[in-house]
Design goal:
Elements lengths: L1 E5 L3 H8 L6 E3 L2 H7 L3 H11 L4 E4 L5 H12 L5 E6 L2 H12 L4 E6 L2 H10 L3 E4 L1 H6 L4 H15 L4 E4 L5 H9 L4 E4 L1 H8 L2 H19 L1
Helix pairs in contact: 1-3, 4-5, 6-8
The protein binds SN-glycerol-3-phosphate.
SN-glycerol-3-phosphate (G3P) binds next to helix 7.
Length: about 220
């Protein structure tokens, strides 16, 4: 499974990229807004750090505007993919952009029917939001499993990005069902490394070794 980071914060992206496990980055307008810089500046900086897909979301809500904004963003770097929110206009824009070789990530996916339509339109990625489904008492993991089954049934090349991940158990769950990509917040990535028994074990190895050197 590929691991993307779900943030627009340059320092956090650099830190996780240095771990050697990062395959890509997803941003969204809410994450960009937190950084106090414009989308193009942030995406340009990210493209200099990470060698993998980078999602940049357009703000137009009509197909023509989406295509125009998408073409502009795609010029920044070949790794940029255009993130579009699920709606009819997005399907139309996805068809155009994908036919020009510009990759599209259809976001705000909350049903397998939406994912099927996005794939049919030529989306390179779909982003089902599992945490936001869990928030309203629906099974987000089940949605991702359904989408994986449908895409496998028909041989779609569209990759599934598990988004809106809220904790390490979400990551384990999507990895177990064979999801292509998980886009993970910085705090969750940090939690994935930690285990109290690992810390305890390291402390014991060091203490035992140091004690032996004093004898
Ligand atoms: O990037 C989209 C998605 O991951 C947002 O997550 O936590 O705001 O539901 P969240």
């Amino acid at each position: 499974m590929k691991i993307f980071i779900d943030t627009a914060n340059i320092e956090k992206i650099k830190e996780i990229n240095d771990w050697g496990i990062l395959d890509g980055v997803t941003t969204n307008p809410s994450l960009i807004a937190k950084e106090g810089k414009d989308l193009k500046t942030i995406v340009t900086e990210i493209s200099k750090i990470v060698d993998g897909p980078i999602s940049a979301e357009v703000m137009s809500m009509d197909a023509e505007g989406m295509v125009k904004e998408g073409r502009e963003l795609a010029k920044i770097h070949p790794n940029i993919n255009i993130k579009l929110p699920m709606c009819v206009e997005t399907l139309k824009a996805t068809k155009v952009l994908s036919s020009e070789g510009i990759k599209v990530n259809v976001t705000l996916i909350f049903s397998s029917q939406q994912a099927l339509l996005a794939a049919k339109a030529g989306a390179a990625f779909v982003s089902p939001f599992l945490g936001r489904l869990d928030d309203i008492g629906t099974d987000g993991i089940q949605l991702i499993a359904e989408i994986m089954t449908i895409f496998n049934n028909y041989g779609f090349n569209t990759q599934v990005i598990a988004a809106s991940i809220r904790g390490p158990m979400h990551v384990s769950a999507v990895a177990q069902i064979g999801c292509d990509i998980a886009t993970i917040p910085y705090d969750v990535l940090k939690k994935m490394i930690e285990h109290p028994k690992t810390s305890e074990g390291i402390a014991k190895f060091i203490a035992d070794y140091e004690k032996s050197q004093k004898n």
